[in-house]
Model the fold of this input.
Amino acid sequence: MTATTDAELTYTSDEMMSIAAARALSNGQRCFVGIGLPSTAANVARRTHAPDLVLVYESGTLGSKPDRLPASIGDGILAETADAVISVPEVFNYWLQPGRIDVGFLGAAQLDKFGNINTTVIGDDYANPKVRLPGAGGAPEIAASCHEVYVVVRQSRRSFVDRVDFVTSVGHGSGKGDRERLGLRGAGPTLVITDLGILRPDPDTSELMLSQLHPGVEVEQVREATGWDLKVSPELSRTDAPTEAELSTLRALKEASK
Amino acid sequence: MRTDKTATADEVVAELADGMTIGIGGWGSRRKPMALVRAILRSPVRDLTVVSYGGPDVGLLVAAGKVRRVVFGFVTLDTIPYDPWFGRARQEGSIEVTEYDEGMFAAALSAAAQRLPFLPTRAGLGSDVLRVNPRLRTVRSPYADGEELVAVPAQRLDVAFVHLNRADPHGNAQYLGPDPYFDDLFCLAATRRFVSVEKVVDTATLTEEGPVQSLLLNRSTVDAVVESPHGAHFTTAVPDYGRDERFQRHYAECAKDPGRWPEFADRFLAGDEKAYQHEVTRFTEESR
Done:
């Protein structure tokens, strides 16, 4: 990872990504958290600007307050620190499908320009793929029914493709209006946070475009790491560098989780 | 109704026939009825359709050539993302699959539990899950909303196998950990229902260890109870025990390497459950 120096602080592009993702979450929101990058970011948010963020993990833990990062959704620390623990069927039937979650926070193996997510197969032949990925898990429900979806993923030509090989979880389908046509109630992916910047859907077409650059990153660099002709928002802005408090929170969390 | 339903693992597995559809409870590498799975490995049965929130149960059955089709939302070992045996079988195309996501999978079991032909869900609309599974259809709401939904077909089971912490001899069964998983749905969806437990106790003792709500299964939905201490090994059965991570790593390493698998199978899977537990104890002592 490239190291960036801003004033006195040195941080990696992965740290910038986690902190940018944490900032996207608002205090008091109910956030459905995937393990890995989303979980890191959500736990940083809860320790910084969003102490009342309600973390919901798929194993049925509502309002978990772990003091370290959980190793998997089955990690006991999630249940031990939760407001309530419900069964997994209840998570799907009564929390996801009816739209009781504000933000679904997902990772992705492969993502396309309309924010569709593939976690099923790499290669265009389902019966004979190049690689089989672990599968959908609960992501399709999250993508369908949360009010909004934030995706946090490292940006590269391999992961950011024109069309995903397999639509596991629907983003904006083939463009604007598709979600409404399909009857999917949530707004779909409204933010994609990467190690280079932040992408948001174009309000006219729903195609993801670059709306924010992390410090030290140039537009050309992001375009090179994108498998489609990436458009740049006319209101392109710069991400603020991580503060000392954000960085020390993130690092302490990582240290406690070793 | 039989009042004493206690049986051995081999007795319940003897009820299986080739080509049956079996559901396996638990979730990933958690509270899996592994002693019952090991009994299936020892039996002659084959061509099974296995319906599971998959973990090492699926991997072991695939390794033993027992499986024709897997119906799944994922197959994972939790701390190891992907079961190596299942991964290889899928890559080679040696098994058939019905791939759902977790919510559709739950809808399929719920529909079967309610003896409905299908249940509607929004998940999957617009996804390629519908493209690669032409059996999946949509349905339109007959009411003013006119909403189109995925009609997930009921997944009936010939047999369900689940593992809980305690049961009485009549089949009232209790979980003492934080999560019921889908074990009640598996039993409600099945024709024959077999539960293994860490310990068989008398009925009054059940409510001494946990509230009545922890009785996930009752005698009306259970056909046999198999006492099987450490029967979920190497998956979790908290609070009785957690996952045996060292053993799971050993399983995954051997499963990845076809050269090492026969050694694992010979040592742990060739004998009966007592022999398995004995070898596991030795394996644990070796690390001390």
